[in-house]
Structures are given as structure tokens and as C-alpha cells.
Design goal:
By secondary structure, the protein is of the alpha/beta class. The protein has one domain: Rossmann fold (3-Layer(aba) Sandwich), CATH 3.40.50. A 5-stranded parallel β-sheet has the order 2-3-1-4-5, sandwiched between helices. The longest helix is centred in the middle third of the chain and has 20 residues.
Length: about 170
């Protein structure tokens, strides 16, 4: 197995972290870089465009460091702007060992899944700049892999990721 970076992007509550947790059962030493957890340490409370851009760059540098040390990583990060993901690909500069994975799910389904009530708060104006509500999510135009969590089971989604990684000789 070669180290790799899966850059999991999608709306909040699309299933990014859930898929990564499932992958961790079968991929030894798979590190999860969860955007919510990392934000506490790297970029607390700055959800401006500049803040999001900076947060994404910091996470990309951390992923690159893990790759350099042979640790496969899955980044579970909204990464709302195409520019964020292009910057990550450029910073990491790992060719086939980097894959942008679009975790596709409708806004309506993400809102249904939201156990923290973030979407409801954003709709009431209690959370400003929330991706999908009053801040845009730019869906990938050229994702390496698209996983449809709205219409496929968790097991099928995780298997698609594993098959993709095997196809690139990374598993």
C-alpha cells in the first residue's frame, strides 16, 4: 500500500466523516483530518472567505506532512470553493496519490441529516456564512471520484472509494 490523500469535499452533513470512519475499519493507519476538529486548533471561528481559504491551506500542509511520512490520510473538509481544492492539490503535489472525492448529497438531504441543528440556525440567521445557506458551495467540476451518499448506502460508498484506491494501486 502506498500512502495517499483523499480530499473529501461536500456540503455539511453530506457524509464525508461517516465514510472516512467506515474506511478506517479496512485501511490500516488511515488518518482522518476532520475539518471541524482541526478548526478548533487551526482557525477557530473564522468562517470568512479568507479564513476558509487559510484553513484549507493549513489542512493541506498537514496532509502533505503525513503523506511524506507514509501515512494515508482522508481529509473530511467542506472545502466550499473550487479554488480551495485546487490550492490543496497544488500544495500537496502528489500526483496520483492525491484524489479529490466529491461527496454528493442534496441540500435538502443534508438538512435532514443535521443532528446538530446547524442548518436550522443558519436559516434563522443565528449562524452567518453557513455553506449551502448564505455562503456558496462550488461543486467540483473535475472530481477524481464522485460518491452519491443520498442514493447509495454507506457500504456501497465506502466500497467505491476502496475500489478507486485499488484502481490507482494505492491499496
Amino acid at each position: 500500500m502506498k500512502p495517499f490523500i483523499l480530499w473529501m469535499t461536500g456540503l455539511p452533513c453530506s457524509g464525508k466523516t461517516t465514510i472516512v470512519k467506515d474506511l478506517q475499519k479496512d485501511i490500516p493507519n488511515l488518518a482522518m483530518l476532520d475539518g471541524d476538529e482541526l478548526r478548533e486548533w487551526f482557525s477557530p471561528k473564522d468562517f470568512s472567505k479568507a479564513g476558509r481559504d487559510e484553513h484549507n491551506k493549513k489542512v493541506a500542509h498537514l496532509a502533505k506532512l503525513l503523506l511524506k511520512h507514509g501515512v494515508p490520510s482522508a481529509v473530511s473538509l467542506v472545502s466550499p470553493y473550487i479554488e480551495n481544492r485546487e490550492n490543496a492539490r497544488e500544495i500537496i503535489n502528489a500526483g496520483e496519490q492525491f484524489a479529490e472525492c466529491y461527496v454528493k448529497c442534496s441540500l435538502e438531504k443534508c438538512e435532514e441529516r443535521d443532528v446538530k441543528g446547524m442548518y436550522a440556525k443558519a436559516r434563522k440567521g443565528e449562524i452567518k456564512g453557513f455553506t449551502g445557506i448564505d455562503d456558496p458551495y462550488e461543486a467540483p467540476e473535475k472530481a477524481d471520484l464522485i460518491i452519491d451518499t443520498e442514493h447509495e448506502s454507506l457500504a456501497n460508498c465506502a466500497q467505491k472509494v476502496k475500489d478507486f484506491l485499488k484502481g490507482r494501486n494505492l491499496l
